[in-house]
Design a protein that fits this description.
This protein is of the alpha+beta class. It folds into 3 domains: 8-57 and 125-238, no CATH class; 62-118, no CATH class; 247-449, no CATH class. The protein has 11 helices and 25 strands. The strands form 10 sheets. Strands 1-2-3 form a 3-stranded antiparallel β-sheet. Helix 6 (227-245) runs parallel beside helix 7. It is elongated and about 100 Å long.
Length: 487
C-alpha cells in the first residue's frame, strides 16, 4: 500500500471499524437544498458539490453570458453586458476586444439560458472564490482543511496510487468505492491550507493533483465546526472504543494461566499450546525505544507495545524469551500446520475488522496490533518478531487482515528497524546456528512480503498437497518443497 508521508497522528486514524462508510442526507436550511452525504475515515462529507448561491459565486457556464462591451457614448469605458448578442467587435493595440454594437437577447432565449444554468448547477454545484468558499458552507459544516482531504485520499489508497478513479462516480467511469461521487468536469475543490491560506485538489483521470491556479473552484463541505474539531472527536471515540475492548479478546472457554512481570508488575494471561507456554497477549514492557501504536498509551493497554528487532531480543522478562523461527514453526504444527487454517485458529474471536475474526481455539487471542516504521504506523494486521536472523535482517511472522491474505500465517524478512509486537515464550532460548550469508536487502518503506529472490529462504513444511498458494511474494509449496513463488 502506497502512503502519503503525513503526520503520524493523522495517518493512523484511518482503519477503525467504527468509521466505516455511512450514507445519509442533509438539507441546507438556507435554501432547502438536499444533499447526499457519506462518512469516510471519520468525516461526514457532502457527496455532491455545494450549490448555495452565495454572493460572488456562479454556476459553470454563467461566465459565458457576460460580454465586455462599450456603452457607446463619448468617454465611456468598456464594461460588462449580460445576455446580449454582439454584432460588431473592436480591438485596441493590446489585443483587448469588446463589443461596440449589440442587441439584447429575446426574453424566451434568456429564460432558456436560465433553465439550462439551473439544471447544470443542480448537478455540478457552484464555483466560489477562496474567500467566499471559506464562508459558504452551512451552519454545522465547514470548508475542510488539508488534513481532512489527506485522510480522504489515504482512504482511497494514497495520492501516489492514483485514487481519482476510486473517488469518481460510476456514472462517469469511476469505481466510487468510497461513495464520494465526484464528476470529472466538476472535481476541482478548495481546501483550507495548513499554512493559513487556501489551496486546491483536482481529479484528472485517475490522479489527484494540487495547486492548479487561482480561478474559482467548487466546494465539498465536511460536517463539524472545523477539521481539527472532527479529528479531536475521532480520537476521543477511538480512545473510548479501545479502552472498552481491553481484555475482551480472550476466549472464555479457555483456562488461561498468568504471569506477572517483576519489572513493572504487569500481569499477563498465558496459554499452554502443545509443549509451549506462550503469553496470551502481546508484551507491554516499556523498554527503551519501544512505542505504543500511534503513540497512544491507551492502545498499549490492549495491544501491547511495538519494538525494533534489537529491543525485542531482550524485552521478555526473566524466564521467558523471544521465540525463534523453529519455535514459531512448532506452534503452527501444534495448531494444525496449514498456514491458512493456523491463522484462523490463533486469531481472537473479536477485534478484527469485517469477517476477519478467528476461532481462537488455543487461547493465543491474536489482535491486529499493526506495525510501525519511524514515526509512521500501519493498521495492517498482526506482526511479531522472531529471534532468528537471516541475511542481516530479523525474521517476522504475520497474521494478515482477511482482505489481504485471508487467514494466512506467513513468514518473511524485513529490516530490523521496523516496529512489531512481541510474544514471549517461557523457558530458555534455544541455541541456533549462525545465520547463513544472504544477498543484502534494501529496507522496505513499509511492511511487505519478501522479494522474488527470497523464495529459497522459505523453510515452512506443509502437509503434502498439490500446491499451497501463499500471499504475493511468498512461496508455493508441493510436498514440503518450494516449487515457485506466487505471482
Amino acid at each position: 500500500m502506497n502512503k502519503i508521508k503525513i503526520a503520524a497522528a493523522i495517518i493512523t486514524l484511518l482503519c477503525i471499524a467504527a468509521f466505516a462508510q455511512e450514507k445519509g442526507t442533509f438539507t441546507d436550511p438556507r435554501d432547502k437544498k438536499k444533499y447526499k452525504t457519506v462518512k469516510i475515515g471519520g468525516f461526514t462529507w457532502m457527496a455532491e458539490n455545494l450549490s448555495f448561491n452565495a454572493k460572488g459565486s456562479q454556476c459553470p457556464g454563467e461566465e459565458k453570458r457576460i460580454t465586455p462591451c462599450w456603452g457607446g457614448k463619448p468617454g465611456d469605458k468598456p464594461g460588462k453586458c449580460v445576455d446580449i448578442e454582439c454584432t460588431d467587435w473592436a480591438e485596441d493595440g493590446d489585443f483587448n476586444s469588446w463589443c461596440t454594437k449589440y442587441k439584447k437577447l429575446p426574453a424566451k432565449q434568456i429564460q432558456d439560458l436560465d433553465k439550462e444554468l439551473k439544471a447544470t448547477c443542480a448537478i455540478s454545484g457552484r464555483r466560489y472564490d477562496a474567500e467566499t468558499a471559506s464562508k459558504a458552507c452551512p451552519a454545522g459544516w465547514h470548508l475542510p482543511s488539508y488534513k481532512a482531504w489527506d485522510i480522504l485520499l489515504e482512504m482511497a489508497g494514497g495520492i501516489r496510487s492514483n485514487p481519482g478513479k476510486k473517488l469518481t462516480a460510476t456514472s462517469a467511469g469511476g469505481t466510487d468505492e468510497l461513495g464520494f461521487a465526484a464528476l470529472p468536469d466538476n472535481s476541482h475543490w478548495w481546501f483550507f491550507n495548513k499554512d493559513g491560506g487556501y489551496s486546491d485538489f483536482k481529479i484528472e483521470g485517475e490522479g489527484v493533483y494540487g495547486n492548479r491556479g487561482n480561478e474559482d473552484k467548487f466546494v465539498r463541505c465536511a460536517q463539524g465546526k472545523s477539521t481539527d474539531d472532527v479529528l479531536a472527536a475521532i480520537a476521543a471515540a477511538e480512545k473510548a472504543e479501545v479502552e472498552k475492548a481491553v481484555g475482551k479478546q480472550f476466549n472464555p472457554k479457555i483456562i488461561y494461566g498468568s504471569m506477572t512481570d517483576a519489572r513493572d508488575k504487569i500481569t499477563y494471561k498465558t496459554a499452554k499450546i502443545g509443549e509451549q507456554n506462550w503469553l496470551a497477549e502481546n508484551l507491554n514492557y516499556n523498554a527503551n525505544g519501544s512505542k505504543c501504536f500511534k503513540d497512544k498509551d491507551y492502545i498499549c493497554k490492549r495491544d501491547g507495545r511495538l519494538y525494533d528487532w534489537a529491543t525485542a531480543k531482550t524485552a521478555c522478562p526473566a524466564g521467558w524469551h523471544l521465540p525463534t523461527d523453529g519455535e514459531w514453526d512448532a506452534l503452527m504444527k501444534t495448531v494444525g500446520g496449514d498456514h491458512e487454517a493456523s491463522g484462523a485458529k490463533l486469531k481472537a474471536a473479536k477485534g478484527w475488522s469485517g469477517d476477519g475474526n478467528g476461532t481462537d481455539e488455543f487461547g493465543f487471542s491474536a489482535l491486529p496490533a499493526g506495525s510501525g516504521e519511524g514515526n509512521s504506523y500501519y493498521s495492517n494486521g498482526a506482526w511479531w518478531w522472531s529471534a532468528s536472523e537471516m541475511s542481516g535482517s530479523g525474521i517476522y511472522r504475520n497474521i494478515a487482515l482477511p482482505e489481504k491474505n485471508k487467514d494466512g500465517f506467513i513468514r518473511s524478512r524485513t529490516a530490523k528497524s521496523f516496529l512489531y509486537s512481541v510474544r514471549c515464550l517461557e523457558g530458555e532460548a534455544p541455541k541456533e546456528a549462525p545465520a547463513a550469508a544472504q544477498p543484502a536487502q534494501k529496507p522496505a518503506s513499509q511492511p511487505q512480503p519478501p522479494p522474488a529472490n527470497a523464495n529459497e529462504n522459505c523453510s515452512i513444511t506443509f502437509p503434502k498437497k498439490s500446491c499451497v498458494s501463499m500471499p504475493a511474494g511468498s512461496c508455493k509449496m508441493a510436498g514440503g518443497k518450494v516449487v515457485d513463488k506466487c505471482p
